[in-house]
Structure formats: structure tokens, C-alpha cells
């Protein structure tokens, strides 16, 4: 493949004042004669190595938990903010006993009332593979430590995949992926759970879509949805944008491949003899429906402030999700210029997290790659990350407070509620800026060089076919075919 010279790439240090100031730590903004694009140190390789390095720092941050923090109900895992679900669920879901997820019922003596694994099938397979690589023998504490390390190694591979995919999605803007690679909340939450598997598959799907390979993107979205529910939401923005651009066939190919891939993974586990739904397979969906309001959500904030348990939170969340999706669809069809795929994808996933009954610390992993593609501005990204780091510390100190008995060492409920409010407002802040970029496309930093939608694949540069509201009026007033319209500092053919 032909190498791309650095002078053909967008350099954030020349267009972003925060990136330029930060670059002073390594010698200042890159010069015009730099040859990073043709040396071994290509942007993609640099970003992948930075992401791996930050992941390693996140592992070091878990150091206080290695010896005893995860065991015996110690509050060390909270006071040192090094909690992880991974070692707890090794024995808590029967992996230490060789139980097969979805097929074998978990004994009540170890599960705490969870009769089957409460994760989607592909995540369950990921967990099972890690268990197979965890050697037997020794104490259960030692095996849980090894299980965490095995999972960390597999999640490290996922991190490298995410970094490479995000860096290559925008051909001329690989350096935007440094936002993802250097995100502090990403490093801190990477090994709390298994979310990075779905994030990696989603990032790969967006890369394939940007290259015009819609069917492959659909397969990856289907596999990602078999690991976590949220990736299926990307089909909504694709539908809206493909309708506006008159590329419905491309959407149908992608959506059909997604459904086929999801079924290929789930069907072998879904049914028992006689084609009854296997209760182990359905556990993820019933658990998500039945769980009460939980940590980090706006519903927990309201519940704690009012004393109301909010038993109808499912109804409220569903209603807000439907209304929010309708608003995003209207935005996509009525905006003066067709939004970029990454922008709508970020908005719909952020909406899902904001209205969900739980907003776990690791959910920020879903948003970081999308945010880097949707709005690559360092100042606003770091403001949001600061809010997420604040919440990361807040939830563990709150759990230390509630788990320390009468000592109450940690963050009281009032402080935790402020932490919830901070990370909700931080996410809303970034959403508001993305919406502003959509409504005033000249503000969109990605389009300043005349680009249309670098992550849009078949949508990139496509004319609008079906639009409503202000977009329809703007289209009717547009110049004739072949003229050029100025957008920001660049221009494009209409």
C-alpha cells in the first residue's frame, strides 16, 4: 500500500490550541518537513503503542488489589479504586468449577442468587476462553488473580484493535485517535469488565463502513451486538443517513448481515430440545429488564434524592429512549448539511447510556472511540474525561463508605450524588457540542478542509435525496450541479 506523507495528513497541533500546548512536552508541534508518514513511526503505530502503554498504566493502577484487595470482602478495592468484576465472577459464575455458561445452572452457594451467566453469548465465550487458559491448582485466590491477568491480556489485544481502527477510519485524520489512546477514563476502566470486546468489534465495523464494505460492517455489528447490546444502535443512524442520501440498499445489506451474524452466534445457544428458549441464554435480557435502578444513573440520583425506588424506571427509560431517537432522526434529516455517521452514532449511544437504569463506570469505553471521531477537540474531550474520572473515584469511595460499617470511611451519599451529576452533565455537554456542530456545520473541525464524511463510506460526498425542514429549503436554494459551495475553510461539489 502506498505510504501517506505527513504533509497530506491533518495535524491537530496546527488546528487545536490544546493539542499544540500539550505537544510542547515532546518538543512542540510537528514541522512541515517531518516524515512521520513514511518512517516506521507511522501515526497508526504510534497511536497503537500509546494505547497499549496507557492500558498498562491502567493495570498498574490495579496493583493494590492483586494480593488481597479483591478477596475476603476487603474495602481496599474501593479505597484504592482498583475494583474489577473479573476476579469476582471467576468463582461467582462457576468458571472455577468448569461450568459451561448458559447450559449449566450456577449453584446458589457461589452465585449469590444468579442462576445463569448474565452476559450475552459472545462475551460468555470470551470469559470461557479465558477460563480455559487459567491453570488449575493452588488457592482460589491465586486462580482468580491469574484469570484477571489472562483476561487483561485478551482485553489488551482489543485495545490495540480499537486504536488501529479509530486511527484508520478518518484517512486524513489518524492523529484524532490519540484522544482515545490517551483518555484517562479509558485506561482506568478498561479491566473492570469485558466491554472492550464489543467496543473493538464496533470500531472495526465503523472502519469497514468507512471503506465502503457495508456487508462486512454489518457482520461486525451483529457480532458486537452478540457481545453487548449497544452496538445494534448504530443501525439507527445508518438508516437515517442512508434514507437522506438515497442509499437504502447499502443500509439493507448492512442490516441484513448484522441480523445474520447475530443469529449465527446466538441460535446454537438459544434453544433447548423442543425449541424452547433456553433460560440461560435469556438471562441477560431478563436480568436487564428486571434489575432495579443502579449505580451512576439519573434514576438512582432521583431515587436517592426523593426516596422513591422508581419501580417504573423501565417505562420512563423506554419512553425517553424513543423520544430521543426520534429527535436524533429529525436532526439527521433536517440539519442544513447531512451529519457525519460518527456524530449520530455518538449521540444515539450517549442517549442510551444517559437514560439507562445503570451508568457503570466502564460504559465510558463505549463512548470514547465515538467521541474521538465525532468531535476531535481536545479541550472539550478533556473536560468530559475529567467528569468521568471524578465519577470513577466517586463510586468507589461511595462503596467504601457503605461497606465500612459504622466507620463510614469514604464518600457519603450527598457527595456521590454530586459525582453522578458531574458525569451526567459531562456527557450532556459533549452531546450539546456535537449537536451544535451538526446544526452549524462550519464549526465542524473535521469538515474544515472540505471533507464531507470520512467515516461515511458510500455516504461520503453523496448528494441529499430526501430531506425535511431547513435542509429542504437549503437544497432548493442550492446552486446548480457542478458549482462549489464553501464549507468552513474548504469546499465541496454540490
TrEMBL record:
Tagged with keyword Translocase: no
GO MF annotation, one: hexosyltransferase activity
Main location: membrane
UniProt keyword terms in alphabetical order: Cell membrane, Membrane, Transferase, Transmembrane, Transmembrane helix
InterPro entries found in the cross-reference section: GT87 (IPR018584), UCP010361 (IPR016570)
Entries under Pfam families matching the protein: GT87
A GO-annotated cellular component: plasma membrane
Subcellular location, record wording: Cell membrane
Transmembrane segments: 40-60, 146-167, 179-209, 215-243, 250-271, 315-334, 341-361, 381-403
Residues spanning the signal sequence: none
Keyword hit for Calcium: no
Similarity comment: Belongs to the glycosyltransferase 87 family.
Name of the molecule in the record: Uncharacterized protein
Organism of provenance: Streptomyces cinnamoneus (Streptoverticillium cinnamoneum)
